[in-house]
Amino acid sequence: MANSRESELHYPLGDALPAPGATLELAPGVRWLRMGLPFALDHINLWLLRDEIDGQAGWTIVDCGVANPATQALWEQVFATELAGLPVLRVIVTHFHPDHIGLAAWLTEKWQCRLWISATDFHLARLASGSTVGMGGHSAAAFFASHGLVDEESLAKIRGRSSYYPSMVPSVPASFRRLMNGLQLQIGGHSWHCITGYGHAPEHISLHCPDLSLLISGDMVLPRISTNVSVVDVEPEADPLTLYLDSIRQMLMLPADTLVLPAHGKPFSGLHARVDQLLEHHDERLADVMQACAAKPCHAAELLDLLFKRKLDLHQTTFAMGESVAHLNALWLQGRLQRRLDADGIYRFSTN
Ligand SMILES: [Zn+2]
Fold first, then answer.
1. Phi-psi region of 234 (alpha: psi -120 to 50; beta: other; left: phi over 0)
2. DSSP secondary structure string, 161-176?
3. How far, in Å, CA of 139 to CA of 327, rounded?
4. 219 CA → ligand 1 middle, Å
5. According to a count of CB atoms within 10 Å of the terminal CB, is the N or C end of the chain lower?
6. What is the CA(340)–ligand 1 centre distance, in A?
7. How far is the centre of ligand 1, averaged over its atoms, from the C-alpha of 275 (Å)?
8. Distance 97 CA to ligand 1 centre (A)
9. What is the pTM of this model?
10. How far is the CA of 37 from the centre of ligand 1 (A)?
11. Residue 132 in contact with residue 234, Cβ under 8 Å?
């Protein structure tokens, strides 16, 4: 969902973007690069941090891009021109989504270095890379159907999309080093604090550097779009929206002047304003859902127009369905809505 209050945020670099295969320095030893993505969301931001590990000078990479030849070619260009002849010493991944972990196996193999990631996201990436869990296939189609997506053409496509995750994450490193909430990493002479966030991925790690007043927010706080918060078929009764809102409320403890380095969009200041906007956005959506379900019992699919107010392609529809269920589950699990399984096999939610 686009941010109608984006003007409350400040972009200190204006419209400057790193050229493909090149970097922009944001602070001493902190570099920004962008890679393309094969989605409506057409880019991801990745970060290079000047580092030293075991007495060896080099770089830490944060997030990888999807596994495809174009992204690999851009990385090769970065290695040739942007690393001052130094090696990559480690690869940090904020969470298991394909645009973040896709090339982790290739990068760690190439540089013979370790992947650092939360344990939950590591294991899920390993599982998803080798199967279809939560990413499409029959169980996803059945889950969407139980929430009112009954259009047979869409369901057939979802059933057929079982290799979606492995196509962008063909492999995941066999070993990793575990990131956890509160862990402090020494990177380039600065301490970076791991902050766990929930609701977008099982155990998303953001990195905050108090010295430099920087937050690598991953997908937890984005300037222009709201973070996807979805219920998926492997955990159909989950309440990721409440988890997400609790997680971003914690971000209000960070200094207001923190420069946020998001995975999508441009580096911005205005962290507190952005968190307030997101809290308000979801409050409004929850109120809309309550109102609709008070008028008549509703399933997730019929709330898509209300929640998204635009035409969605299939990829967007699956994300949107997950988000719609997330809003319904939050209200249901808080006891504000009742859930009923009707004779047609569809869950409907109502206020009584
Ligand atoms: Zn993500």
1. alpha
2. TTTHHHHH-S---S--
3. 21
4. 5
5. C
6. 31
7. 17
8. 5
9. 0.95
10. 12
11. no
In the reported structure, the alpha carbon of residue 85 is separated from the centroid of ligand 1 by a whole-number distance in angstroms of 31
What token pair was written down for 200? 């977008």
**From ligand 1's centre to the CA of 174, what distance in Å?**
21
Ligand 1 centroid – CA 55 distance (Å): 33
Among 22, 95, 32, smallest CA distance to 268 is for 32
Given a contact cutoff of 8 angstroms between Cβ atoms, the answer to whether 233 and 142 are in contact is: yes
Angle between helical axes of 271-295 and 314-333 (0-180°, round to 10):
80
Distance CA 229, CA 45 (A): 20
Whether 179 and 205 have beta carbons less than 8 Å apart is answered as yes
CA of 153 to the centre of ligand 1 (A): 27
Print pLDDT tens along the chain (352 aa): 678 888 899 999 999 999 999 999 999 999 999 998 877 778 999 999 999 999 999 999 999 999 999 999 999 999 999 999 999 999 999 999 999 999 999 999 999 999 999 999 999 999 999 875 556 688 899 999 999 999 999 899 888 887 888 889 999 999 999 999 999 999 999 999 999 999 999 999 999 999 999 999 999 999 999 999 999 998 999 999 999 999 999 999 999 999 999 999 999 999 999 999 999 999 999 999 999 999 999 999 999 999 988 888 888 898 999 999 999 999 999 999 999 999 999 999 999 7
Distance 56 CA to ligand 1 centre (A): 31
Distance from C-alpha of 285 to C-alpha of 309, rounded to nearest angstrom: 12
**Residue indicated by tokens 């997101």:** 278
| Cα 272 to ligand 1 centre (Å) | 21
What's the gap in Å between 92 CA and the centre of ligand 1? 14
Tokens of 16: 């400057």
